[in-house]
Amino acid sequence: MASTPASLPAEFATGPVVVKAWAPWCSSCRALAPYVDEAATASGVPVLDLQVDADPDNLVATFKVRSVPTLIGLRDATEVARLTGAQPAATVEALFTTTRTGTGSVTNTTPAALVASRAAAGSAVVVAGLVFDTIVLVAVGAGFLAWALAGLARQRLE
Predict the structure, then answer these.
(1) CA 76 – CA 146 distance, rounded (Å)
(2) 5, 57 in Cβ contact below 8 A?
(3) d(C-alpha 82, C-alpha 79), whole Å
(4) CB under 8 Å to 36, separation ≥6 — which residues?
(5) What domains, with CATH codes, occur in the chain?
(6) CB 3.0 to 4.6 Å from 92: which of 35, 112, 124, 142, for a disulfide?
(7) Which of 52, 92, 74, 151 lies closest to 83, judged by CA?
(8) CA distance 113 to 125
(9) pLDDT (tens digit, 9 = 90+) per residue, 5-45?
(10) How many CB atoms sit inside 10 A of residue 1's CB?
(11) Which pTM does this prediction carry?
């Protein structure tokens, strides 16, 4: 796990803190922001905003941030948890809990895992995408998986 660099503001060097690496042009960062704000308020864990495009202390390299958004949970100057990419609220809350208590673990939730968990819970999920040049809808829910084509004609990419 990474140690906290000396250039980290003193008020964040001890106790729990979550470093939020983000960029203003990142849509996933904007989508994750409300979850981070809610979890920070509920847990009382402070958040250090680290805008990757404006990082004079080079904390992005120090913390080995390779993608945005990235959330890094630090407890007493030691990394205890890390999430990369857009995550559901429950996963963000788990990161804040792990950071605050110093116990537990957090795992990135992939889109496939999210769809599977919602399907297992009986929730209907619809995922749209392109397979080759045909629009395909995947409907997942209550333990079944059905494939349907959107329309009878194939949609060509131009």
Answers:
(1) 49
(2) yes
(3) 8
(4) 18, 20, 47, 71, 92
(5) 10-101 (3.40.30.10), 111-149 (no CATH)
(6) 35
(7) 92
(8) 12
(9) 555 677 777 889 999 999 999 999 999 999 999 999 999 99
(10) 10
(11) 0.68
